Amino acid sequence: MKKFLSSLLFLLASHSFAASGEVELVFAIPSYTPTKIDADADSYFTVNFKPMLIIDKSNFELIKTNDVLAGNCVGWSTTEDKASHYESHCMIKDADGDTFLINSQRASAGGTPGTGKQQVKGIKGKYVGMSGTCTFKIKTVQNDGLYVAAFSNCQLQK
Question: Which one of 43, 141, 150, 155 has the fewest beta carbons within 10 angstroms of its own beta carbon?
Fold first, then answer.
């Protein structure tokens, strides 16, 4: 009986620890055209975009290195009194339709390079209960349109 209870306690204890890990990913954002309004010295814009997410490195059990995910995002930016702020909210889906959210914020105008923070929240399928934070860096290139890449380093747990 003592051995049975010890085994049961061991199993319960081993399942109470949350899985956690680090994920490095790239948001590849195709050319897009924001809706922009300039009002005197201030400006405002909104944009809808559909990035592809490429998992560059992962030791988190739910997200594997070389996974490719699809996003559907809305972003907006304000520049008021020479201070800029950008936010975006993205629903990210894998090939199975399992979904999580990534919400981004940074203190620079949309469509420009900068760094910021992201919050991650699992909402459907295997990602339910997942959460975490990321730091990210934006790089842009202007060619026949504006192309954006966001490089994120995330700490995730479930």
Answer: 141
- The pTM score is 0.85
Determine the Cα–Cα distance for residues 53 and 147; give it in Å rounded to an integer.
Answer: 14
Superfamily, domain 19-157: SO1590-like (2.40.350.10)
Q: Is the dihedral of CA 83, 41, 77, 32 positive or negative?
A: negative
d(CA 61, CA 17): 14
**Using CA atoms, how far apart are residues 42 and 80, in angstroms rounded to an integer?**
5
- Give the H or E element holding residue 50: none
Task: Tell me if 108 sits within 8 A of 135, measured CB to CB.
Answer: no
| Residue that the structure tokens 């059990």 belong to | 61
Q: Give tens-digit pLDDT for 16-65.
A: 456 999 999 999 998 888 899 999 999 999 999 999 999 999 999 999 99
Encoding tokens for residue 110?
A: 């949309």
| CA atoms of 49 and 60, how far apart (whole Å) | 27
